[in-house]
Design brief:
Elements (H helix, E strand, L loop, with lengths): L1 H17 L14 H7 L12 E5 L7 H4 L28 H8 L13 H6 L28 H16 L6 H10 L1 E5 L2 H4 L1 H5 L7 H21 L4 E5 L8 H4 L10 H11 L2 H11 L4 E5 L1 H10 L8 E5 L25 E3 L7 H13 L4 E2 L3 H6 L1
Parallel strand pairs: 1-2, 2-3, 3-4, 5-6
Antiparallel strand pairs: 4-7
């Protein structure tokens, strides 16, 4: 019996290492598709995804705000693990979209604002429209005097820059429509609408339940615009557990591991999203809408950090301009050494490790993505 127990322990740890358990280490920078699929125990998967189009905020932005000279993640220590180069990603290394693109055998979606007209005519593997501090509504970023790209404007860029320039590179309209229909449209938006924008502006006009309904209606319009432009396969994230961000955890009074007042506000919006996506799929022919539960990804990591390889889920890895850990990173100040086991790089944004966990669970975990996983959406 002792030998059997020992064998079970060995099998358990083996399963953890190959990816069936919770913990899986962040893969090396510049890992290729084949090696990453093996790392994720997906080596037998066949993927034929032509492009990945990403829309959203600073969890997605890989350089658009940097091109616009909007202050943010354009300096070290941001990018310290992205080959030591700050790119505009608000983390130490890669973001979830980068890992997802590699799994699909695609290049990282380039930021739309950094693309020339020739780039737009020749880039068929996808584009990133994300803009830090942006949201569903145009009010996001304004109280910080930041002219960010809201979701409506991001869809405009897809229409007026990407489609306008790219469709001419296809032999005919039919092949271009087929290309768009097979591509994935990844949307992560709403956190800023429900965070500082609600607290500083919109909360004066709306109760949280009415505001959540208002946001859902606005989001629906943009998803339907993308559909009319040719999108068919959507992965739409709910909003993460922002009450667990170091900014909130370390600056507000609370009793548990997170600030439940903030998380309850997020939940008002999140509970409306699945029915919206189901209704859209029912009414828009040939569409597929997948709900991605990033809230649960965060929630699980906070509740059981060691299971996911984290030692610290409540502290920012970097120091802010006041010498504290409750804001964005101060320029050129060294961050923490052990960045693989910390959940947040600054007081608002996930570390590369949490981004990888987010991508991995979206790709493989049917308890996180429904009615299918991201891998299944890629294959659909």
């Amino acid at each position: 019996m002792a030998n059997l127990g020992y064998a079970c322990v060995i099998i358990f740890f083996h399963l953890l290492q190959i990816g069936y358990g919770h913990f899986l280490e962040v893969p090396p920078f510049n890992i290729n598709q084949r090696s990453l699929l093996k790392h994720l125990s997906l080596e037998d998967i066949k993927i034929d995804l032509p492009a990945l189009y990403a829309f959203g905020d600073s969890f997605i932005d890989d350089g658009n705000n940097r091109v616009l000279n909007i202050s943010g993640a354009s300096f070290l220590p941001y990018g310290i693990d992205f080959d030591g180069k700050p790119t505009g990603r608000a983390t130490n290394g890669r973001v979830a979209i980068d890992f997802i693109a590699t799994v699909a055998g695609l290049q990282y979606p380039p930021p739309i604002m950094g693309m020339s007209e020739m780039d737009s005519k020749t880039t068929r593997t996808g584009v990133n429209y994300g803009s830090g501090s942006s949201g569903i509504l145009p009010q996001n970023g304004r109280f910080l005097n930041m002219n960010v790209i809201n979701l409506f404007q991001q869809v405009d860029l897809f229409k007026n820059k990407t489609i306008k320039h790219l469709k001419g590179s296809f032999n005919d309209t039919k092949s271009f429509k087929q290309y768009l229909a097979k591509s994935i449209f990844f949307i992560h938006i709403g956190g800023n609408d429900l965070g500082l924008t609600y607290e500083t502006k919109m909360g004066k006009k709306y109760s949280i339940d009415k505001y959540a309904q208002f946001l859902i209606k606005k989001l629906s319009k943009q998803l339907q615009r993308l559909y009319k432009l040719g999108a068919r396969k959507f992965l739409v994230c709910n909003v993460a557990a922002l009450g667990c961000q170091p900014f909130n955890v370390n600056k507000r009074n609370h009793t548990g591991p997170c600030v439940e007042e903030v998380n309850q506000r997020i939940s008002e919006y999140n509970k409306l999203l699945p029915s919206l996506l189901m209704n859209l799929q029912s009414n828009l022919s040939d569409s597929k809408f997948v709900h991605g539960d990033i809230y649960k990804v965060f929630e699980d990591a906070i509740a059981s950090p060691a299971s996911y390889g984290f030692k610290d889920v409540s502290t920012s890895c970097c120091i802010d301009k006041y010498g504290a850990r409750t804001g964005t990173c101060a320029p050129n100040v060294a961050p923490c050494d052990d960045r693989k086991t910390i959940a947040f790089f600054d007081a608002f944004h996930p570390s590369e490790s949490l981004h990888f966990l987010w991508a991995r669970r979206f790709l493989k975990d049917s308890s996180i993505c429904s009615p299918m996983t991201l891998i299944e959406l890629m294959q659909a």
